[in-house]
Amino acid sequence: MNALQIFKHGLKSSLRKPGSIFATILILVVPVMYPLFWLQAFWNPYANIGNLPVAFVNEDSGVYGAGLEQQLRNSIDVKWSFPGRKSADSGLKDKTYYAVFVIPENFSQSISNVRTANIETYVNGKNNFMATLLASQIEKRLEEQISAQIVQNVTGKLPGGDMVAAFAANPIEGKQIDINPVANTGTGFAPYFSSLALWIGALLISLVLGRRVDKSKLLSPDGVNLTLGRFLLFACAGLVQAVLLTAIIYALRIDVQSGLLTLAALAVSALTSIALVSTLISIFGMFGQMLSMFLLIFQLTASGGTFPTELTQGGLFIALHPFVPFTYSLNALRETISGVPPDGNVLVRSLAVQIAVLTGALIICAAVETFRGRGQTKLSGRELILPQGNS
Question: Where is the signal peptide (predicted)?
Answer without folding.
Answer: none
